[in-house]
Amino acid sequence: MAEARHGSAFQTRNIDTDDPGTTARLVGALDVQDANPGVRRLRDRAHQALGLRAGERAPDVGSGTGSQTRVLADAVGPEGSALGVEPNPALRTVAEERAAGGRALFTDGDALALPLPDGSVDVVWCERVLQHLTEPERAVAEMVRVLRLGGRIALLDTDWATTILHPGDPVITRALTSGALAGAANPYSGRRLVGQASAAGLVVDDRGSQALLQDHRSVAWPIIRLLGESAVRRGLLTESQRDTAYANLAEAAERGGLHMSVTMFGVIAHRPR
């Protein structure tokens, strides 16, 4: 991927892959997102619009723990292929372990230089990757390069500027939610997808969004701790302030009064013949 930015939790260079605790927190955050009903609804809409068929070739760019690579593999069947391209070795190991015995395959690779020939795939899936790139337009162009004429692409990404966290001291809450902006090289990615797809020569067929609401009765601790650690690291909060914020959020969740959300956008497009 492109140059990592300090605070970007998902960038390979910003993750100590030898630290099991760091990897566990990252995998935990991804698993929380995978389980979110809003994420599932947006994914379902994207898969329906893509209409994958048996025998198709479908790479998953930035495959993470491989949850969507496995879905792609099931959709294209034994005659097709689903390849997860993931630069983070710790995540790739988790993906391979979870896919053991299935048809999903995984390889090391960079979104800016996919290990695939020109025009060699039918469908590209790219979810929550562009937000981590300083040159997302280059990545979209690279995906178009490997896509055959008439091939389809799904771009799904978060717009971190839409993050809402309540309740809490406004100053501390702003410091926490700013970690969402600092944690991505391209934090406004969601709102830019349509323009990036069009600029790359793709025809936009469908677009949608989902507010990803966290459970109001429980704190999404893997995500909150990533935000809290980022705020402390950047000097916006002391450890004491962070811990107080954690306690306030936990208390609000016990009352069923927690609100945490961010909006995710999706674009389905095709490469014209």
TrEMBL record:
Keyword Transferase assigned to the entry: answer is yes
Q: Name one GO molecular function term.
A: S-adenosylmethionine-dependent methyltransferase activity
Q: Which Pfam families match?
A: Methyltransf_11
SUPFAM superfamilies membership: S-adenosyl-L-methionine-dependent methyltransferases
Domain Methyltransferase type residues, every copy: 60-154
- What are the protein's UniProt keywords? Methyltransferase, Transferase
Q: What name is this protein filed under?
A: Methyltransferase type 11
Name the species this protein comes from: Streptomyces brasiliensis
